[in-house]
Hints:
Layout: E1 3-5, E2 14-17, E3 23-26, H1 36-39, H2 56-59, E4 69-73, H3 120-149, E5 152-160, E6 175-178, H4 187-198, E7 205-207, H5 215-220, E8 227-235, H6 250-269
Parallel strand pairs: 3-4, 3-5, 5-8, 6-7
Antiparallel strand pairs: 1-2, 2-4, 6-8
Helix pairs in contact: 4-6
Amino acid sequence: MTDQRSPAAASVSFELHHGxxxxxxxxxxxxxxxxxxxRHRLVPRALAVEDADWNLDRLYSFARELGASLxxxxxxxxxxxLNRPSDNQPMYPGQNNTELCPTRFFTGEPLYRSGxxxxxxxxxxxxxxxxxxxxxxxxAELERLRGExxxxxxxxxxxxxxxxxxxxxxxxxxxxxxxxxxxxxALSLRCAVEAVxxxxxxxxxxxxxxxxxxxxxxxxxxxxSNVHAVQxxxxxxxxxxxxxxxxxxxxxxxAVTPLLESLIRTLRDWRPH
Length: 273
């Protein structure tokens, strides 16, 4: 296994760990870096990157020892959202959505000072600089895994505050599994994942509920091509504190880790029929 960093340009930043199993874990929203050229245009609140997937790569750190490949960006989703399509089509039509280059917090307030939002040309530059290299690495690693193992499994790992009225009503379940309504993976894998959560009673869960899978799950999950994708959107309360400074909660993290280990082992060990 090897680690590689993205091309030398400082603005393009991710870490790719090459694993030994068919499983790749993508963490598109853990990045917290905002390049200097954008910071003065954002409202001060934005610099705290409150909508990051806080501590998530730390929570799944055990997966490296289980043979998974890991793809971890460092740039904030406020610069460009790696889990949105490059044409900025909404993921969930008819509901409030965050954009390819977000202009609002998850609470609905503006991210930018008035008149400082990115225009279409700048959005195109951000896609070329940050979005495309990440997706090129993602696609290449899936192809490597499929070539070595005959199939690849992509797990797109996410987390979010459990209550965000601007985005969804009420409180999210602890665990929100997405398979694009069954289109992004084989039925047997979907059933295997469902069984992992059905065996436990400590955490509420749903499959293909409010979060059915974002751009990464929907784009790369191609069961007919032997690439299978599953997303998990986990409520922060399962492993951390939901209020600033969004601190790691050791007891909660320790409690949820066995469930996540079972999930990762299931994804790693599953084989197409």
